[in-house]
Write a structure and sequence with these properties.
With 333 residues, this protein is of the alpha/beta class. 43% of the residues lie in helices and 16% in strands. The protein contains 12 helices and 12 strands. The strands form 2 sheets. It has a 6-stranded parallel beta sheet, with helices on both faces. The protein has a 6-stranded mixed beta sheet with strand order 7-6-8-9-10-12, with helices on both faces. Strand 6 (172-176), helix 8 (181-196) and strand 7 (205-207) form a beta-alpha-beta unit. Helix 4 (60-75) packs parallel to helix 12 (283-298), helix 7 (153-166) runs parallel beside helix 8 (181-196) and helix 9 (212-224) crosses helix 10 (237-249). The radius of gyration is 25 Å and the shape is elongated.
Length: 333
Amino acid sequence: MSIATVSRVLNGSDKVSEATRKKVLDVMEQNGYTPNAFARGLGLNTMRTVGILCADSSDIYLARVIYLLERELWKNSYASMLCCTGYQLEEKENYLQLLLSRNVDALILAGSQFIEDNDEDNAYLYEAAKKVPVFLLNGVLAGSGAYSVVCDDALAVKEMTDELIGLGSSHPIFLCRSLSYSGKTKLSGFCRSLAGHSLPKEGRFFLCPAGIPETAGFLRDLEAQGVTFDACLATDDELAAGAVKYALSKGKRIPEDFQVTGYNNSLLSVCSTPEITTADNRVEFLCTTAVSLLMQVLEGRDVPERTMYSANLIRRATTRRRDEGDLPVEPSK
């Protein structure tokens, strides 16, 4: 039996009779033979593997994204190779080059931490997009040839801020961990809402340390410094849980004295007491859409370079209700 015949069987060719195919497979099973995936990939010009980059897989949001991406890729008969890059530019570039050296078919960048303010620092992403399809989740790199799937974070935060102001808040503040692409987008929505209600934005935005106790301590320090605030909008549910912890430690009633919103609709939002109002950025839709579009690109089909969708506001116990008639309600302007 020739090498070419065995190769046709391994590659699923229809030019082999069923009797021959069975004979080859029986011999493989008897000898415990497993095809070399790397060698086979070189022959077929595909490794059927997608590289995933994320900054920190211990982050509750990114951990969920990784799980969903791997699940969807597996459904499409693709394996995944994960690299956790951290937040330093040099490490991001090194890990991306590592994945390219492994002949991955495509790259998925999970999270907005991969978009740098200085466009020169994004040069390695532009170069990667010339070699393989690159998908950015919650990030946009204009003119790169990469594909983006993003939630309209600015609109979601604007609507949440509008609602808190309409429910009586006159001194809301905004907390974020960093000014990543997503952080800046959410901040723009917050500022748009303040402008629409003729409220000043100066002194309303703060970079906050990660961690629930750290966020609580940060807010206590703000209060001690004389900063006035009656509501907190956070860029993720962990920061929001820290805001709840702060309020409880100060004896503030939630939501009567202090309102809180988070983002991502993660487990933290329902594990908190009281449960946290949050924006559901529909992470499962994000991941299934990204993988579906990626499969179309790998098949040679045209897809839009940017796909944007809306978040859903999940109202829970940390914000007031419209039917609380004793609250002052300021109409949106």
